Amino acid sequence: MTVAIEKPEKTDAVEKAAPAKSGRKVSRPMVIGAILVVWLVLFALLRGKQTLTLAVADLTDLHRSINDFNDSIGANRNSNPLFLYFFNEIRLVIDNLVTFVQHLISQPSGARPVPQIGWLGVVGLAGFVSWAVGNWKVALLAVAGFTFFGLQGLWQASMDTLALTLSAVFVALLFAIPLGVWAGLSDRFNRIITPFLDFMQTMPTMVYLAPLTLFFLIGGASATIATVIYAAPPTIRITAHAIRNVSKTTVEAADSLGATRRQSLLKVLLPMSKRTVVMGVNQTIMAALAMVTIAALINAPGLGVNVLQALQSLDVGTAFNAGLAIVIMAIVLDRVTTAASARQEHARNSKNRLEKWRTPLLGAGALVTVVLIYLSHTYLWAADFPGDGTVGTHIASATDTAATWVQDNLSGLTNAFRDAITNGLLNPFQTLLTDSPWWLVGAVLVALAVVLGGWKSGITTAVCVGLLVATGVWSDAMTTLASTLVATVLVMILGIVFGVWMGRSMVADRAIRPTLDAAQVMPPFVYLVPFLALFGATRFTAIVAAIVYGAPVAMKIIADGIRAVPETTVEAATSAGCNTWQIITKVQLPMSRSALTLATNQGLIYVLSMVVVGGLVGAGALGYDVVAGFSQGELYGKGLAAGLAIVLLGVMFDRITQAAARRAGA
């Protein structure tokens, strides 16, 4: 990731001379400090007044109106022309696609008691495709991973997840690649679509689900449509970036040879962008898998159902077993697409003698795969995975034993850590936000936005605050805001500590970065499982999971920022007698200010997403409102309003931190 480098600081002489000309300038930290002091004083005077608190079961007029609108749609779904000829048709097409893929690999098809392609054929097909687009190493990984799903007793659930993921990725790429090419070729279209992509990538996964169920009902179709919307932006962005970064001299050479615009696109731009575009496909697949698992909230089949039911019943062992299957699937899909992006370059540079035999070997592999598919289609032993999932039973049992041991022997330590953070940091800050008058909190947020990001950020924040009040879930939004900001502070502490270490040491970077890359592959759902075992079903579980989920991206951005500081500047500081601490705090961190701000931006977005998902394990607030809206019809309107509140928080965070990053890089 490219990080903007801040301009060098003024010399001492310039800084000493500046006050003489323009007077002492009030620094930004001083203004922020003054705003916070005024807030604390007014909080002490006005505590508990005009807090807009709403009980869990209480509804506002807006919530009732949404409920009435939902009931009206349900009553007219089969008579309203908009549904008859648009929404219902889209749902039917997507549902048919998903059903077709499910009948192919996961669900019984017609009178058959098993899918069209059984486990042996799917394993063989996964291995062959992985070898064809990548190499034999990822093929072995794919075969081992898919076989392990059966050994866990999760073959059908895993194939349901894969079917939904493949269906969503197929539809997403049909739209995303052409839109990405268009954005890469047209500056005007790129400017138009960028705000929409920003907005789509700011929204946490859970927020997509409620509005879509309003129009497409619950089930696989809604889950697939939500996944398409969530997963398409990475491919659009990366494809546009790849097209724009093709060498201009190459394009000009093609034009000079008389190539048409279509020929230039098909023969030059797309072939030279192929590797980058495949990386975009990789990101879309990862996003799709993350959304498909959490879409269990709207009755999407697959591994997400296993995890959701286990989390709701606090069954850590079952949740871990299903979560492990999700992680393995994510790793396999990630490694296959990553290998595919590097395949052409590897073949060109490879000196392996077996490379020239690749084509005939692939032909033989294709023949073997066809035989395996035939066997799995014809014979029950090759269609239905053998065994009763004893490996999964042992994994769940071992996990339960480990969780019990941790709770019995480490509860003192884990509870002390939880209570220290909760009582020392989270509770006071949450009280400040929820017990202050709503208008006071709103004024503080707007003032901080103006100071950090400028007037445009202030206006955006003012609009978001007004809409948050209108949603009727202000108090829950402030609770979510408190958890998000506390988790983000801890993410940034970890990010700075490990990011500086990685930025200053290539050995540390090579040792830590693979772990960070692997952590970013895991869907957010899975992060809740181990911390549920450690801390139980509390809001602290969601906060710790959010920290672990958001820290990798912050560490990598800060490490890249530290490494981008010119060596000559560091050497000059060293020759001036600065020690390591002084170099870090006086040179590298100040000159990486834009990277720090960008890391804060990404950390906030990641943390908000996980804090909301934490509503499944006792985090409460907006996440609980959204989940309750899915399960309790009378709370649907409140859940939808909570989803809107989450979006508003995300937009507010994103705009303030992006504007601050631009200021820091100026």
Describe this structure as you would to a colleague.
- This protein is mainly alpha-helical and about 675 residues long.
- Helix content is about 80%, strand content about 0%.
- It has helices at about 10-20, 30-45, 60-75, 80-105, 120-135, 135-150, 155-185, 185-200, 210-215, 220-245, 250-255, 260-295, 305-310, 315-350, 360-380, 380-385, 390-410, 410-435, 440-455, 455-470, 475-505, 505-520, 525-535, 540-565, 565-575, 580-590, 595-615, 620-630, 635-665.
- The two termini are about 20 Å apart.
What string gives the helices and strands in order?
HHHHHHHHHHHHHHHHHHHHHHHHHHHHH
Extract low-pLDDT stretches.
1-22
Helix % is over 70%
Question: Count of helical segments?
Answer: 29
Average the pLDDT over all residues and give the rounded result.
85
Largest sheet: none
Oligomer class: single chain
The proportion of residues in beta strands is: under 5%
Number of strands: 0
Structural class label = mainly alpha
Question: Termini separation (Å)?
Answer: 18 Å
